[in-house]
Amino acid sequence: MNIVSTADLRRTYGEGETAVHALAGVTLSFPAAQFTAIMGPSGSGKSTLMHLLAGLDKPSSGSVVVDGQELAGLGDSGLTALRRDRLGFVFQAFNLVPVLTAEENIKLPLTLAGKQVDQAWFDKLVDTVGLRDRLTHRPSELSGGQQQRVAVARALVHRPAVLFADEPTGNLDSSSSEEVLGLLRQAVDEFDQTVIMVTHEAAAASVADRLVVLRDGVVVHDGAGQDAEGVLDLMKAVG
Ligand SMILES: Nc1ncnc2c1ncn2[C@@H]1O[C@H](COP(=O)(O)OP(=O)(O)OP(=O)(O)O)[C@@H](O)[C@H]1O
């Protein structure tokens, strides 16, 4: 079953001769429990695609279906509810709330939605991300890697249909990057989580099951995951 799919997705900024075709017809399907890395040179349309998949921007034409819902058919409140209830996000900047503890940050999506915390799931997540002894700490008292692990737990606490990760290791050293990527991998393997990650880093992309490469707003490669060397070779070949 596809959790996310697009059909001939286009997004044009501006008009006439100065128009930029950030996405120029992208048709992709993302099956459940698959880890996809999206790569491509700067300006190839990766952020635009992520924003459209998450309903944060509207396409010029084409469709996006997420968790069985055509986004064009949802109003602003429907999109907000979809993002809150069905999507998880991890960004390069950890985006934690500074005055809240790690535990409060992790539970925030549920608090905001007025939903009960599934304590067994919360405990499992906390143990998976290895933050049991840091739950009462505020973000400023945590390392970058720990903060991003809080962000991963927060993105998973409401069991989203899909987790979007936008350069999740962009601000991390290599060992923290490995930890965070390992967590995302574990979420796919153990929790059947669907993950779609944009990255510039071959090492990050190498943990994915599938590699999609964009260039000039179109898909120029869509294939099985590669090791880091394979990713670099592929990027050279398509770049
Ligand atoms: N709000 C906007 N107005 C005009 N042009 C835009 C806007 N946002 C993006 N673009 C253009 O659309 C194209 C795709 O941009 P996008 O940010 O999706 O690329 P990207 O692959 O995410 O790049 P990067 O790796 O640098 O983040 C670029 O040419 C960019 O300049």
TrEMBL record:
A GO CC term assigned to this protein in UniProt: plasma membrane
A Pfam family reported for this protein in Swiss-Prot or TrEMBL: ABC_tran
Naturally occurring in which organism (per UniProt): Solirubrobacter phytolaccae
GO molecular function: ATP binding; ATP hydrolysis activity; transmembrane transporter activity
Gene3D superfamilies documented for this protein: P-loop containing nucleotide triphosphate hydrolases
Keyword Lyase among record annotations: no
Keywords associated with the record: ATP-binding, Nucleotide-binding, Transport
InterPro entries per UniProt: AAA+_ATPase, ABC_transporter-like_ATP-bd, ABC_transporter-like_CS, ABC_transpr_LolD-like, MacB-like_ATP-bd, P-loop_NTPase
The keyword Cell membrane is annotated on this UniProt entry: no
Domain (ABC transporter) ranges: 4-238
Descriptive protein name: ABC transporter ATP-binding protein
PANTHER family linked: ABC TRANSPORTER RELATED, IMPORT ATP-BINDING PROTEIN
Coiled coil (UniProt feature): none
